[in-house]
Specification:
The structure holds two protein chains of two kinds. By secondary structure, chain A is an all-alpha fold. In chain A, 84% of the residues lie in helices and 0% in strands. Chain A is built from eleven helices and no strands. Chain A starts with a helix and ends with a helix. The radius of gyration of chain B is 19 Å and the shape is globular. Chain B has eight helices and ten strands. Classes of the chains: A mainly alpha, B alpha/beta. Bound molecules: adenosine-5'-triphosphate and magnesium ion (MG). The site of adenosine-5'-triphosphate (ATP) has 11 residues of chain B, from α1.
């Protein structure tokens, strides 16, 4: 009796254990290569086989990172950059959401706007910079505008496409139950569009981070991009890499925030994926 | 009572899908609509539902003209069409959006119990089998207590066993409130098991070709001689409806010749 009970009790635990292990091991597998390279480089520099002056070893980068953080410079520059991305992302997403929703909903508006927007999209967004600088000066406004332009296109395209590809059979269910226009949007269109919209927000945010670097490289007195330029001009590669690491961390964190905020509304999608 | 008066439909692309269908359906009657592919069965059902109103003629329900979806009319499609972002209970209660929460919960629970899925209330639609999903769709359509329930080949995507199971189930549910059922099907057995009257349609444009009363007592035995007799009549009518469609010119003569041979 007791043995049987014990066995039964042990079974799920045993089965769960390897799965848990696999869940930890799989991301860890991806770390093998970078960690090995870092350790090897550290070792090579320590042994004096290379100077590490242009490519500083991990310990130096870490020390620079800590120094920058301790002096408060890192936080200040990060906040400035974050503020620019937030402003550009906010503007880009707002405009893209309004126009994308209108173009997805109304064929007339789509025919009116989409060709022009597609043509604009073909222009590499950085090419706008001189014009933006002429119009808005070299300070915040032109940077934010560039980021907003970068964020706009993926969100606009994603939302318009998502609305157009909403399953008409589900819309018909809404009609059969006599939903008002508002209820139709709230109960059918919104939930149907949300997964694709979140994906477009995340790719928009990615572009936002890309463009903030471009904007700050072109002239800024503050921001993580300024740290990059500063490190280049003063020959401090560790500072450059520290700024890059900061970009990676903040970029990933903001992306994760969007995913986290959307997760409760997209739980039904997980079921689909498990299948 | 549901009254169809010369209901016609011409699609914007010029296809003349329905050419004047007139009939009357009593409250609580079960009508099966059968006919070759493309003869306008779905078009007729959608015209009655108000989803895709007739271009000519009228659909009257209790004297009220139907030109848009109506609260007294429910529809069940060939696919369950459950909303994937709502759990089963949310889907079943979808048509009760304006009711107080408690009433909604109670009616959803009752409906789910009635279709035998009380334990699936908190499950996502994707986790259901095809038959279970269609049962949820039936529950969803019945929860607002429609007077007329339209079904467009509701069981045709299911395997034979699940199909007969759901046919019996549908009759069970029908017995609760006795709504009018109009059921489009390709399955002659299904039509005869369920219906009081089998309406055979013929194409180009879609019309009623023949109507066959099914006066067998319920529950009906699919193996009985009486069942078989009705089935032969329906099959014969179907046969004639199709041969007439192939040769419209001298079809009339052929059809009557065919009828003479049959009887
Ligand atoms: N939305 C539409 N636009 C144009 N023509 C249509 C449309 N829907 C159906 N038709 C045409 O109308 C005719 C009747 O179609 P319908 O779908 O009502 O047939 P059906 O009897 O339901 O066929 P099936 O048994 O294959 O479901 C067909 O010739 C079809 O091509
Ligand atoms: Mg059809």
């Amino acid at each position: 009796m007791t043995i049987a009970a014990e066995q039964r009790g042990a079974m799920p635990a045993e089965r769960a254990a390897p799965r848990k292990w696999a869940r930890l091991a799989r991301p860890a597998l991806g770390l093998v290569l970078p960690v090995t390279l870092a350790v090897v480089w550290e070792f090579i520099v320590r042994m004096g086989w290379a100077s590490g002056r242009l490519a500083p070893p991990p310990s130096v980068i870490f020390a620079t990172f800590v120094d920058l953080a301790r002096s408060g410079d890192l936080q200040r520059h990060t906040l400035v950059t974050l503020g620019r991305v937030a402003a550009g992302f906010g503007i880009g997403v707002s405009v893209a959401t309004v126009i994308g929703a209108a173009a997805g909903y109304s064929p007339l508006i789509r025919r009116l706007l989409d060709p022009s927007l597609q043509a604009l999209r073909a222009i590499p967004s950085i090419a706008w910079v001189p014009l933006f600088v002429l119009w808005l000066g070299i300070f915040e406004a032109s940077k934010v505008l560039l980021i907003a332009v970068g964020v706009f296109f993926p969100v606009y395209l994603g939302l318009m496409g998502a609305i157009q590809s909403v399953d008409r059979k589900l819309v018909e269910v809404g009609r059969a139950f006599r939903l008002s226009d508002v209820a139709m949007v709230r109960r059918i269109l919104l939930p149907a569009v949300l997964p694709a919209y979140v994906i477009s927000l995340r790719s928009g945010l990615g572009l936002g981070w890309m463009f903030v670097v471009a904007a700050e490289l072109m002239g800024a007195s503050e921001g993580l991009g300024y740290l990059l330029i500063d490190g280049q001009e003063l020959g401090k590669p560790a500072e450059i890499v520290a700024a890059i690491v900061a970009f990676a961390i903040v970029g990933k964190a903001t992306d994760w925030l969007i995913a986290l905020a959307a997760a409760p509304f997209l739980r039904w999608e997980d079921v689909v994926r498990q299948e | 009572m549901l009254v169809l008066d010369r209901v016609s439909k011409t699609y914007p692309n010029g296809v003349h899908a329905l050419g004047g269908v007139s009939t009357e359906v009593e409250l609580g009657e079960i009508v099966a609509v059968i006919g070759g592919s493309g003869c306008g069965k779905s078009t007729l059902l959608r015209a009655i539902s108000g989803l895709d109103p007739a271009s000519e003629g009228t659909v009257l329900l209790d004297g009220e003209r139907i030109t848009a979806p109506h609260e007294k009319i429910g529809i069940i499609f060939q696919e369950p069409r459950l909303l994937p972002w709502l759990k089963v209970a949310g889907n079943v209660g979808f048509g009760l959006g304006d009711r107080p929460r408690q009433e909604r919960a109670a009616r959803v629970a009752t409906a789910l119990k009635r279709v035998g899925l009380a334990d699936k209330a908190m499950v996502w639609p994707r986790e259901l089998s095809g038959g279970q999903a269609q049962r949820v769709a039936i529950a969803r359509a019945l929860v607002p207590r429609p007077e007329v329930l339209l079904l467009d080949e509701p069981f045709s995507a299911l395997d034979a066993f699940t199909r007969t199971d759901l046919q019996d189930h549908l009759l069970d549910l029908w017995a609760d409130a006795k709504p009018t059922l109009i059921l489009v099907t390709h399955d002659v057995d299904e039509a005869i098991v369920l219906a009081d009257r089998v309406m055979v349609m013929c194409p180009r444009p879609g019309r009623i070709f023949d109507e066959i009363e099914v006066a067998l007592p319920r529950p009906r035995d699919r193996q009985s001689a009486a069942f078989d007799f009705v089935k032969r009549r329906v099959l014969a009518a179907l046969d004639r409806s199709l041969s007439r469609a192939v040769a419209p010119a001298d079809g009339e003569a052929k059809a009557s010749a065919g009828a003479a041979l049959w009887w």
